[in-house]
Each structure stands twice: as C-alpha cells, then as structure tokens.
Amino acid sequence: MITGSGVAAEKYLPLPPASIAQWYKPQNDRQVWLHTMFSLRREMQAVTEYAAAGEQALTQKWAERFTGNYLKIAEMVPEWKDELEYHWLERLRSAAETGDGEGVELALRKIGQGCKSCHREYRAVTAILYRTPDFSNIMIKKPTDGSADSFADVMEELSSLINRIKIATDDSREQQALASLEQLRRRLDDLGEGCSACHNDPAPRERFLGKLTRDALEDLERGLKQGDKKLAGRSLGGAAVYACARCHAVHRSPYDIRETLLP
Description:
Strand 1 (2-4) and strand 2 (7-9) form a beta hairpin. The protein is built from nine helices and four strands; from the N terminus they run E-E-H-H-H-H-E-E-H-H-H-H-H. The protein has helices at 32-52, 56-76, 86-98, 101-130, 151-170, 174-194, 203-209, 211-226, 229-261; strands spanning 2-4, 7-9, 139-141, 148-150. The chain is mainly alpha-helical. The chain has a two-stranded antiparallel ribbon. Strands 3-4 form a two-stranded antiparallel ribbon.
C-alpha cells in the first residue's frame, strides 16, 4: 500500500514465473539467469559497436552469440517464450550477415524495447526474491553449550540487550549495564560466526562487526565504568549504527520485502 497526499493507493507488482528460481542460488550452483543477462548486454554492445564501425565479420560473430543466449530465455523460463522478439531476431541476423548497419541498429532497438519492458515489470521484484538471502534457515550457535538459536531470536535478543544497556545507563545502574554489555559482545561474536553461512571471506563480518564496532563497545565500557553517561550514550549509539543499522540497510529491508512478496 502506497500512501500520498492523504489518499491511499495500491500498486500492482507482478511476480516472475516460479520457474526462474531454478536459475538462481540456492537452487542452482551459479547465478545462471543473471550471467545470461550479462552476456546479452555485452553481446548487444559488441554488435552495436562493430556494426557502427563497419566490421561485418565481427558483427555477425557477436550477433550469433546474442541469438544463442536470447533463445535460452525461452528454454529457461517457458512462460516467457511468447514474449520474445523472434521476428526482429531474424532481422538482426540477416542484417548482420549482409553488413546492413542500419538494419542491425533497428533490430537491436526493437529487441531492446522488449528487454526494457520486461525489466520494468520484473527486474526489481526478481532481485528481491532471488538475490536476497533467506535468514529463516540460519541458526546461530552458542559456543558455551553447543545449542543454537534461530536468526530471528538472536536479533530480538540483541535488540533487548541494547535497550537494557540504555535503560540501565539512564538509571545509573552501571553494573547491570556492564553485565548486559558482556552478553551483547558474546552474542555479536556468535552472530559473526553465522555470517559464514553465506560469506566465505571475513570481509563482511569485519565491515559490520569489526574495528569500528569493537572500538565503540570499548568506549561504552569505559563510559559506564567512569559514570560518564554522555560517553556511554554516544558509544552505544555508534555501535548500533556500525553493527545494526549498516547491516539492516544491506540485508533487512530487502529480506522484509522478500517475505512480503513470497506467495
């Protein structure tokens, strides 16, 4: 529901055919659909530039490559078979074969219009559905006893700990705040281990839970021990931005939209 100027309005979002899911992870080892789109864009560029330069042989070479990948669309998503521009595809091949630069340009423009139409309808929603991680299956282990909690439960726990620290700080209950801070650190460490469920390298973890977050938590601890509420509040806010807000900007919003759109 989109609201504006006091009037509620609805916008229709068409979902792509379910068959497209098989060409994305995790159903496929590679992002096949995505790489096919990249290939088509590269091939269209090559055909355009070689045709403009009068390079007939190379124009034809890349036109044939484009044809092969373009026809794969119907194989991968049969529901879109009737949406393909077969007539203009043949016009493209014929123009490339005869060195007709204007014919190549016209055919590519007509095919490109179909591509843009499909992208307008489906590109954003397809990316949300099939390129957004599914956190519902991720479990966060506790090294202390080997048990595991769901990702959602850990998020709730982290939120509660941050609020508990804030409340205790406001009420001058430094020891309770420090105890909650220690718990927060442990659970953030546990959460960081969960990043490996999707990421094979340490960079993502460092980006959200690295030096900036650690330094902010150290400043928070110092502020609590010194009774410096201003330092403690500023440091807690900094840690929440570095660890929480930044990660949510990358992962949470797309995930929430994905969960809303899923049938």
